[in-house]
UniProtKB/TrEMBL annotation:
Alphabetical list of CDD domains matching this protein: URO-D
Reactions this protein catalyses: uroporphyrinogen III + 4 H(+) = coproporphyrinogen III + 4 CO2
Task performed by this protein: Catalyzes the decarboxylation of four acetate groups of uroporphyrinogen-III to yield coproporphyrinogen-III.
Pfam hit, one: URO-D
Gene Ontology CC annotation, any one: cytosol
Similarity section: Belongs to the uroporphyrinogen decarboxylase family.
Name of the protein in question: Uroporphyrinogen decarboxylase
Annotated localization: Cytoplasm
Native species: Actibacterium lipolyticum
GO molecular function, one term: uroporphyrinogen decarboxylase activity
Gene (name only): hemE
């Protein structure tokens, strides 16, 4: 059957007059219905591990905005938890985890085969969604890239410069490499299960790729992403992969070819004109409206949306933000953005 979903067609390399669109963090606190369901679930992690409610919040932005894709509601930090790390969220601050400061902490982590015991509810969410989504909506599964996940596991929290991870990389390279390998292999199994449950596309979030430079970028951002994609493609050749090496700068150039990704997601620190010339030449790109426009709205939102659509109109493009929509965004501005894209 010819592919009819707009998102899948872009990922297959088709240039479309009106690009498919979805938003990072489209299920989230800017939506009153999300806040209501989250209150019902209790805390954020209880929501992630409740398949019915996680499916419900995944569907909420689809009902409101008819996006071309739904992204599974979960978090990149469920993998550390499945590997045995303690994980909790501090309201208004973000995630906290038990730290990995050396070989002793690493030795306490669980083997890869054990992760599914924790992650089974996530696969159930995917199964529910694959039945409940409208026919034209693609379902995206996801995981964090090993480097980004490692930065949280090592520091025990988000850090502005990822210094603890860089320190372990330099001072205890063997432990750091073993951790990267454990996360990489766990991620392959996790994404495979999401695909078997019904995910049609997977996205790999390397939110902190920008702090890796030169050879370290190749070794710890590009190579692990390539290893995951190679393994997934061997098992599921027809499932496209979106890679997001956020703030990679020149590292975006050639990233799709080097890793086997079908699409590269761009953050808003690169200009659309530059990316059309240097990244979209290799295939589909996703992005890259600055999330702040969803707070401020107005004519600037319309102009910037149209400018991005036009810049990428010569090749396959998935419209998205350059990073997640923020809790202070105005839900009405999403309609303004969609009107500017879809007319
Ligand atoms: O709608 C979607 O995009 C799907 C669900 C999703 C969440 N997190 C839900 C979430 C996805 C794809 C993620 C990815 C994620 N999680 C990343 C990579 C993308 C990025 O933003 O760079 C990262 C680094 C995380 C880790 C994480 N989770 C942090 C740092 C935080 C706290 C900061 C914040 O925004 O609150 C979270 C919490 C989180 N993940 C929320 C949501 C909806 C907010 C939790 C709440 O309801 O209180």
């Amino acid at each position: 059957m010819a592919e009819t979903k707009k998102l899948m067609r872009a990922l297959a390399g088709e240039t479309q007059a009106v690009p498919p669109v979805w938003m990072m963090r489209q299920a989230g606190r800017y939506l009153p219905e999300y806040r209501a369901t989250r209150a019902q679930a209790g805390d954020f992690l209880s929501l992630c591990y409740n398949p019915e409610l996680a499916a419900e919040v995944t569907l909420q932005p689809i009902r409101r905005y008819a996006f071309d894709a739904a992204i599974l509601f979960a978090d990149i930090l469920l993998i550390p938890q499945a590997l045995g790390a303690d994980l909790w969220f501090v309201t208004g601050e973000g995630p906290r985890l038990s730290t990995i400061t050396g070989a002793d902490d690493f030795a306490k982590l669980k083997p890869i085969d054990d992760i599914h015991e924790t992650l089974n509810p996530i696969y159930e969410t995917v199964r529910i969604l694959s039945h409940e989504l409208p026919d034209e909506t693609a379902l995206i599964g996801f995981a964090g890239a090993p480097w980004t996940v490692a930065t949280y596991m090592i520091a025990g929290r988000g850090t502005p410069d990822q210094a603890p991870a860089h320190k372990l990389m330099t001072e205890e390279t063997a432990t750091f490499d073993a951790l990267m390998e454990r996360i990489t292999l766990a991620t392959i199994e996790y994404l495979s299960k999401q695909i078997e449950a019904g995910a049609e596309v997977v996205k790999i979030f390397d939110s902190w790729a920008g702090s890796l430079k030169g050879a370290a970028f190749t070794k710890y951002a590009l190579e692990p992403t390539k290893q995951i994609i190679t393994a997934l493609k061997a098992r599921h050749p027809d499932i496209p992969v979106i890679a997001f090496p956020r703030e990679a700068g020149d590292g975006y150039i050639g990233f799709a070819k080097a890793t086997g990704a079908d699409c590269v997601a761009l953050d808003n620190s690169v200009s659309a004109d530059w990316a059309a010339k240097h990244v979209q030449v290799d295939g589909c790109v996703q992005g890259n409206l600055a999330p702040g426009h969803m707070v401020t709205g107005g004519q600037a939102l319309i102009d910037e949306t149209k400018r991005i659509v036009k810049a990428f109109s010569g090749g396959p493009h998935i419209f998205n933000l350059g990073h997640g929509i923020t809790p202070d965004a105005n839900p009405d501005n999403v309609h303004v953005m969609l009107e500017a894209i879809r007319g």
